[in-house]
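TICKET: design request
STATUS: open
ATTACHED STRUCTURE:
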């Protein structure tokens, strides 16, 4: 197996054009992402991001079906999602080429506002697509939205999960406790990502970087072995980080960690007593 390194994207784009131009159901092929943006230099890690506009009633030939991928190579793994308007297949081949293919029917494409940082038509045989492109404006993708109600639900779920994790530790169920402790850490990362989106005004972060300071806080803390005491340490760390992020989200946020930290302290005392 040969791994595709270097700038493999140009040939991959030609392969996509040849594949879809020969298919009558495909009305247009549009290149998005870094490969369509002349201000960004693609590298080995850039995927090929395309929107494929298909004739109404033909979506089933492409999604969730994967048979159309066969001419492009051997699929290693894939992910699929749908939002009711666009149906996306993200695929990685065994040689590490990566494609992000969004399928949308022609009438839906024409009726839906077009949002993209950059877009370049590779071919079009649809007047509806051409007219939609003429009306489109391009710029940074909007930041992800989190309503106050969603934030409050996130907080409630987090603190309940912290309580439950502590109880599972004390019941000796380290399997579930570890699973929950990792979820708590994931929740802090999700909130940090939402804050980053809000600060930058976009949900697209090609180069990353901003937000790495938050990860440095995790790295600065002592390691948490997957023992009862280590899991409690991890829960405590997540509590402090989540509270700090909550205060960044809103000046009206009030710290909520102290009841749980008291519960964790009590659990540590019990663990110490068992060890004596």
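STATUS: resolved
RESOLUTION: sequence designed for all positions
ATTACHED SEQUENCE:
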């Amino acid at each position: 197996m040969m791994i595709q390194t270097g700038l493999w994207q140009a040939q991959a784009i030609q392969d996509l054009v040849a594949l879809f131009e020969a298919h009558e159901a495909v009305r247009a092929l549009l290149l998005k992402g870094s490969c369509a943006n002349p201000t960004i230099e693609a590298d080995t890690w850039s995927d090929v991001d395309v929107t494929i506009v298909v004739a109404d009633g033909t979506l089933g030939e492409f999604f969730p079906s994967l048979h159309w991928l066969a001419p492009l190579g051997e699929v290693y793994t894939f992910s699929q999602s749908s939002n009711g308007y666009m149906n996306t297949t993200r695929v990685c081949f065994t040689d590490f080429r990566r494609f992000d293919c969004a399928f949308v029917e022609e009438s839906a494409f024409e009726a839906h506002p077009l949002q993209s940082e950059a877009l370049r038509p590779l071919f079009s045989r649809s007047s509806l697509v051409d007219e939609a492109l003429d009306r489109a404006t391009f710029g940074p993708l909007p930041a992800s939205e989190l309503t106050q109600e969603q934030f409050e639900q996130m907080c409630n779920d987090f603190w309940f999960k912290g309580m439950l994790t502590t109880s599972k530790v004390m019941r000796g169920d380290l399997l579930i406790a570890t699973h929950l402790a990792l979820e708590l850490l994931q929740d802090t990362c999700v909130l940090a990502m939402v804050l980053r989106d809000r600060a930058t005004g976009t949900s697209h972060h090609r180069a990353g970087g901003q937000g790495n300071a938050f990860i440095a806080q995790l790295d600065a803390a002592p390691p948490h072995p997957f023992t009862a005491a280590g899991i409690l340490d991890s829960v405590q760390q997540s509590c402090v980080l989540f509270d700090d992020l909550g205060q960044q989200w809103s000046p009206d946020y009030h710290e909520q960690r102290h009841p749980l930290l008291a519960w964790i302290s009590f659990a540590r005392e019990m663990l110490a007593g068992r060890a004596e």
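CLOSING REMARK: The chain has two domains: 9-135, 148-275. Residues 174-200 form the longest helix (27 residues).
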